[in-house]
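Slide 14.
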Amino acid sequence: VVMTYMSPVTVSVVNTIKRAMAIWVSVLFFGNQVTPGAALGTGICLLGALWYNFERQRPPAAAAGSSSKDQKEVPASSPGRHAWKSKS
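Slide 15: predicted structure.
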């Protein structure tokens, strides 16, 4: 059900975050050792997910050459604003 509201890229980012968090949970709770490369990789993963989230929430830039009158504004509370699949 949740997948109908998320794009494939968002699902991929969430899955990557889940894997990185599983690594760090195993380090914190079970004392597993992490190589510097793995630490760097999971850090990059988490920073990339944070960047993706910021970019996703930023308002879209106006298209070059078109006026703001041509663009239809979608309210933030609209249920279809971030829906990947339309409900028929």
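Speaker note: The chain has a mean pLDDT of 77.
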